[in-house]
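Bug #77: duplicate submission created two jobs. Keeping one. Sequence:
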Amino acid sequence: MNKIKISPSILSADFSQLGNEIKKLEQAGADLIHVDVMDGHFVPNLTIGPTVIKALRHYSTLPFDVHLMISPVHKYIKDYADAGANIITVHPEATENILNSINHIRVFNKKVGVSLNPDTKLDVIIDYLDQIDLVLIMSVFPGFGGQKFMPEVIEKINELSKIKKEKNYNFDIEVDG
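Kept job's structure:
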């Protein structure tokens, strides 16, 4: 069994102290830093952009797992890659062509993550699992903190884990919410 990794989201951090908050997460043993990026379009809230991520890179050597809840996502991938994202996670609903977005992320030598909303079926990414480094299963609908965990996603997690094992794929499974 793979080691469980902890990837705390800075969404609940004190934004006036983000650099220090990230240092604290690293000192506490976090494995990655999860950065939720929202655009007020794909999801109703706004968070941070590439300029902030670039500034935060100086505070930690941990990988930044940048979860893009923005649309259209494809045209912003380069900005987040250049800002210092190590993993760029996109939603299939936020791109016209998920394979093009996967390949575009790879152009910048970044790991590829794909996020599935609670009601998004695994079928959407099944043909691309061999090209993905991380599958983020949303156990809440993206855009708002403090939602109640949706236990029905456990079946999706189990199914994805089974496929991973049967096909000997190497992606990580991440759960958000």
